[in-house]
Amino acid sequence: REASKEMPAFLKHLETEDNIKVWFNNKGWHALVSFLNVAHNAILRPSLHKDKNPEEYGITVISQPLNLTKEQLSEITVLTTSVDAVVAICVIFAMSFVPASFVLYLIQERVNKAKHLQFVSGVSPTTYWLTNFLWDIMNYAVSAALVVGIFIGFQKKAYTSPENLPALVALLMLYGWAVIPMMYPASFLFDIPSTAYVALSCANLFI
């Protein structure tokens, strides 16, 4: 009978639309319990009678989260390392196309005799190849900057930490500095730009 008397009041409170949302940082083991307990105390103390001192009432919580086992830590480490390795392979795959694209115009100029016309007009071979290299390295730098910007945007700590970011930038730029000059002699092996692009892109994957 006593339960039946309390039932109407209980059902009445079920219709309430007052909600509370607790935000917490899931990086901390005790964050969820701590912030939820703060919310509970914030609800409890205003509900006390006026003659009660809110400072004397509160809810105390003890949290003892389980630490990760060695097996769980090993799985997380392997997963993180695997993801970083896949990202590195994707970057290598993407950047291999950039230096190979620089031979398209070189082959076309050679086949169409445009390069020969420039030499006849007085352009020295040193000037021709040096200007090509400077233009290509500037275009490559734009691609490398985009790669670094994407890593920073997605907060890939393996690549953007203060210790690793300078090494990443240096590695990308030195790769372009080393590979682009290698593309110039290889361009003489082809007469069709598209064939050269595909072949040299595949070769760059293994450099």
From TrEMBL:
GO terms for cellular component: membrane. This is ATP-binding cassette, sub-family A, member 4. The chain crosses the membrane at residues 85-107, 127-153, 165-184. It comes from Mustela putorius furo. Keywords: ATP-binding, Membrane, Nucleotide-binding, Transmembrane, Transmembrane helix. One of its GO terms (molecular function) is ABC-type transporter activity. It is found in: Membrane. It comes from the Eukaryota. It is a multi-pass membrane protein. Residues 12-205 form the ABC-2 type transporter transmembrane domain.
